[in-house]
Fold these 2 entries.
Entry 1:
Amino acid sequence: MAGQLKVDVDHVADNGPGLAFVIYPEAVRSLPLPTFWSIIFFFMLITLGLDSQFASVEAILTGIQDIVPKCREKKVISIFIICVVYFLLGLPYTTKSGIYWVTLVDYYAAAWGVLLIGLLEVTAISYCYGVRRFCMDIETMIGPWSKIYWMICWIAITPASIVFILLYSWIEYEPVIYNDYKYPQWSEDLGWLISFCAIVAVPIVMLYKIFTHKKGQSFLQTTKLLLLPSRDWGPALVQHRQLVKHVPGFTVNPEDRSQHTEFTYQNMSTSEYSNIAGTTDQETVA
């Protein structure tokens, strides 16, 4: 295309939605049998979009089913409702101003929110749950495995990389633009709101859990207690739970209420758990 237009490549190349819907169709038109290549190209885009939708719909469906287990009995209806909501939310992108909305949402929604969630996840696994404990859980499922590389990644490389990318992106931050169009201030504020909507649930749920679970314990005790796995943590089937040997006090059968602990205390002595829960050793054992 640059040769036909007699310009440099950087004057033709584009990124974002314009690359797929403007530049590539123009490039395909200059190939032999352009109709064939156009059909193949847009068929690829359709399958790519469907593949992405499978993952996003399943993620939302799984969350809804975990919160409202009754929805599992009506999975098809739940999927239909999710798809209808997705369809309605996508309609503004098909208007004349759609490309501006796509650029705004793509610039903010798919950037810092995803990185922050990833940082929180790797921190929770490595430093709250314990990377050694996590590796032993995997070993229970798949047998002995080479875990040194993964432990180094989860403890140091991945968190440091995400923090570096976040800091660099914030330092080099520039307001979103589309071609020569500069977005108004309200749209930039909306973009930041969209970006942080993805992670605002984390502190909200944390504070809700802390203040609704307090049972005569201090704030620090409640926080430490909530960082422990619940009694049904672990494999779903009892026959598989019996394979877990590396966790002292592990609840083999969550349905057996003879163990009255609300949480599974891992790699802790009874006295350590009692200090966190604010109970006596006898109460913990009971």
Entry 2:
Amino acid sequence: MKKRANRRSEMDEALCCCEYINRQGERSHVAACCCDCEDLDEVCDRWMKLQPQAQGSLDRLSAVLSDRVRVPWLWGGARRLELSVVPPLVLLPALLRLAALHFLLGVAVLTALPVLVLWYYYVTHRKKGRTLFFLSLALFSLAYMYFLFVSEVLPRGGVSPVQLAVVTGGVVLTVAAMLHTKRDPGLVRRARPPHSTVTYAAARYHTDPAFQGPVGREEVLLGPEGEQSAREDWCLACGLARPPRAGHCRICGVCVQRLDHHCVWINSCVGQANHCSFLLTLLLFLLTSLYGIGLVLRSVCPGQNVLLALLYCPGVYSQYSDALCFTCAWYCSMVTAGLLHLLLVQLVHVSLNVTEREVRLAARHGAPGDTTNYSRGLRDNWAEFMTMHLKAPAPTLDAV
């Protein structure tokens, strides 16, 4: 009892900037990040002996590292640093500067970079885990390209103050639109209005067994208009009835109104409340990127057509600064092409009043063409899309 009291008193003391509470609930210090790490010792020992790793050992090691890698903080102790944020900050500048050394290195790096990104997306998507890697890559790519534009292209003298203001404004508006998109995708809220209940003798297939009574009976609430909530799509994970077109995101662990998809680039879902701002973010990024690529190519390859300069720019690798700008222009072009494809797909879906989730479900059930249940014509579909974020989210009912 005395030891527990002493431990509780130690935990209640204010943490200094380098202290934190680890995942075992113990007080620790950032300087002790390599102490008492049995998981790391086990992994390294098996690796040195050329033995296969034990099941779950790498996951435990990742959990230990993510818990111990901290940044000193003045208020509330050391803060955890998400490890997935670090690789883009280190690899992107290194790979782009490596690609600027030679033409063949540029081809190899610009070919391997999207392959690595797609491989990491496949790994994280298969595990249904959240990661800040793609959000970090998106924001740092935007910031690093702007930094190179200011430090390498602007001193050449071919950019006017108006053009600089346009690029700067585009970057600022893109980041602002992205942050607005991340705020709220339109979560399904739970409500419990004072209505009567109806008892059914047999449980239906989509109800949660946890809500069933001891004799196999269940009770559901009657909605405000007398409609039974059990007729809606029931979510076992959230324990609530979803309204039409809502879906459950297994990565975020929430139900979202009119769920379109989970976007790894913003680390959030795209739903009823932020779908418009998501398209606005894509549009702003594409316009800013295309305009910036044009300015860079005019500066590096003067006198040539902008479209042809990407394919043929003689003498660009004679100076490292020109090669770096040319490599970054190619990197931006690849990212722009991918996001342009995403924007075109989104525009088609909006015109048909269908979500990406509904398209995937229809293809999974063997009816890829059966996605026009909600279409009311091109004009009405776009009118509904532009105003759906203004609608208050309808609260759903939960079982009792």
